[in-house]
Amino acid sequence: MMKRLRRNQEEAADASVRLLTLPASPLVPPQGLRCQLRAATGAGKSLTAVHIAERLRSERTLVLVPSLPLLEQTVAVWRREGHGGRMVGLCSLTGYEQPVGLRCTTDPAELVKLTAGLKRVTVFATYASVGLGHLEKAHRMGLPAFSLAVVDEAHRVSGAAGRPWAAVLDNTRIIADRRLFMTATARVWALKDRDRERAAEAGVEAAELIASMDDEELFGPVAHDYPLGKAISDGVVAPYRIVCVDVADPVLQGLEQRGADVRSLEYRGARLAALQTALLSACAEWDLSRTLSFHHLVAEARAMSTGLPDVARTLWEQDPALHPNPELVGTTWLEADHTPAQRRAALEEFSELVRREDGLRLLRHVLASVKTLSEGVDTFACDSVFFADVRGSMVDLVQAVGRALRTTPDSGKVATIVVPVLLAAGESGEDLLTSKAYDGLAKVLLALRAHDEAAVERLALP
């Protein structure tokens, strides 16, 4: 039996089905029918998509996602809702890594064979498989058109029209009667002078070089928009607070005063130690139990995790009343090269606060990564996000914040977004308006404001 939808999901499903219902005429428009479902992170887009597919009686469904963790998670949602027919994965999961009941391949010919002659089939594919041309090759080998393509995290296919993933927008390359584009962070692109110059040189319209989500020819009209502020007001996602941690580290400040190379091991080590102290201090002050730490480089995420136990011990020895015994502080890190089994084990330890090695119950856990967990992956247990590096696009920042916003009904959860500020010598919190040290905080706030102004306005409420 399918799970009952919440009101926001029901409205989204109804609106999407209306726009994706084929006309009475048997002829499908050349570009197919298209629409967008925009909803805040954690608002239940994946579940809504299953209901949309069922209501449309889609017999050949394609589900596109950006990563293997999200693919596994999405397969579980569709299976849990009783979606029938064979499920096939077009991705790099092999052997024991495959979810139960999902046959995976990266061979277009095998994909055609696995789906041939079936009344109902669902193909789950990663954007990487699109970039490598596997789906296009399969169509050329006889793979029939899909009745519905669900494009999750659809902001990924916006941008330069020449990107490999842009094939998702072209119905002559990936063929589908209907397309449902889902995202929490719609991207609208503006043409730059160099785009117009390139267009003039190529003899085409400049707009053809950019795939922007306000282009209804490419992405269809917005069927439903459920912004973050509304989702928070409705209790669908957790409210959040932003904690700014001023860090005045004498070692790091001394290196900066001496003009140390910021790429040197000495400087990076001092910076990391300051960040580790800031993270654990924020956990202690705000009673945070499960923190996702986001970094710019895999090496930094690994170093954050491996060095955290020593810092935890130092802080405990300095103030045992504030900081817990370091044995009760768990830490792991994840990168794209980790296997699905390794990812599942790390996430299980993170969510259950139980150390894998000996079953010890933990008080808190820090899971460090770059982008492995920043997009789409469910992390309901996460109560906080730590920005060790405030880099990437505004979409990247909002997606990272979204990891802490997922919640369950009546949990009372308040997500905490921790932004460390590394102050230069002589600076203090009073220099907020003039110091470059606060640029990271400003960028996070601007990203959230661009995503949903109402959600940021809530931060100013008493």
TrEMBL record:
Signal peptide: none annotated. InterPro entries: Helicase/UvrB_N (IPR006935), Helicase_ATP-bd (IPR014001), Helicase_C-like (IPR001650), Helicase_Restrict-Modif_Enz (IPR050742), P-loop_NTPase (IPR027417). GO terms for molecular function: ATP binding; DNA binding; hydrolase activity. GO terms for cellular component: cytosol. Pfam families: Helicase_C, ResIII. Residues 26-193 form the Helicase ATP-binding domain. PANTHER family: ATP-DEPENDENT HELICASE IRC3-RELATED, TYPE I RESTRICTION ENZYME ECOKI R PROTEIN. This is Helicase ATP-binding domain-containing protein. It comes from Kitasatospora phosalacinea.
